[in-house]
Amino acid sequence: MFIGAFAVACSGDASRKEATSTGNSTATLSGGPPGGTLVVLADREPDQLNPLTFQSTPAYQAVHLMFRALARRDSTLSGYAPDLAQAWHLELDSTLILDLRKDVFWDDGKHVTSDDVVFTIDRQRDSLTASPRKSDVAAVVSAVARDSFTVAVKLSRTGLYTVNALLEVVPVPKHLLANIAPTQMSNAPFNRKPVGNGFYKFVNWSPGQNLSLTVNATKPDGRAAIDRIVMRFIPDVSAALTSLLTGEGYLIVKLPANQKATVTKSTAAKVYLGPRVRPAWIAWNSRRPPFDDARVRRALLMAVDRATIAKGLFGDVGEPALSPIPKALREHTPTVTPIPYDPAGASTLLAQAGWKDTNGDGIVDHNGKPLHFEVEFISSDQTRQDVLVAMQSMLRRVGVDMAPRAFESTTWVSHLRSGEFTG
Prior knowledge:
4-stranded mixed beta sheet, 4-stranded antiparallel beta sheet, about 25% helix, globular
């Protein structure tokens, strides 16, 4: 589960008064009159806003407000509903036919067509683009525009996961990015000033301060109820919480569990729980020793009591992930068996991989080198730091010396992209 806090004032008189004063009777998706500004308090700012190359969670949130995906998760989180693609079907068991909406335009007035979808898929699967979402199109053999609003995607394999991953593709405007070399896509000016086709339009990005969006009032299938969204960047959790409770902001998407009681007691905000669809994770760099040895990677997981960490840090909403695919999603396999917590087994695996404490200092070593490594995290993420400190103690019991290391968001993302990290 994730915990979010919403200021009561956001849905109160201030928003309604502004909506009334506009005199605008345009229908919205919520059924009410449009109006108001939502100030979101974010713990960090996006790395960039290009659907092809962004890396961070804040970027994901902003991108999906400004751009349509081919399809979107439905309210059950286990199926997909039409978005840019109004329908899709398999042809000859190997080709996915995408039938696009004909009434969607980019914010600069250009029609969204099959050419944009084909261009995006081709760039996303191009290794030179280095898209973090290349795996979503890994099964694509080719993508061809049959006409202006029909795309045929030939797949090397089919199945629920393959099709769903492809439907996650977020098309970008070919007419604005075709001249950008794949190797330069992550540096394109577009990434700081995007042109989308979704619920909201880009207005302004003040580095270190805020990101502003305005509603797309001409969205053909209904406009959003809120006129403006401002994402304020406040890395300090305590400062963000103060801003929420004093009415300087209306929403904290991810509330630290240890702050839940404070917000719950307040009359200025409410706490909401929602299903977690993006589990917390650690990526071991398997291109570097000792993580190139599967026995070491498995031993590290076996040495960590994930259930204790989840309950200790998140209370009654905490639970260890069963796999990288959350159980709320259709792709989850109910019969999956997680690797068990087994410190003794972890020690055995480490010994089999050649890691033993030969000098009695409490740290296992191999060829005279102790098993020491750092795990990087974003400095503003107190929850990640708390998780790593708990893991540090658990791993020490099996002779592993792990040290958390904090980095500013941009540096952390850079290390992740370049592979310059251990964990």
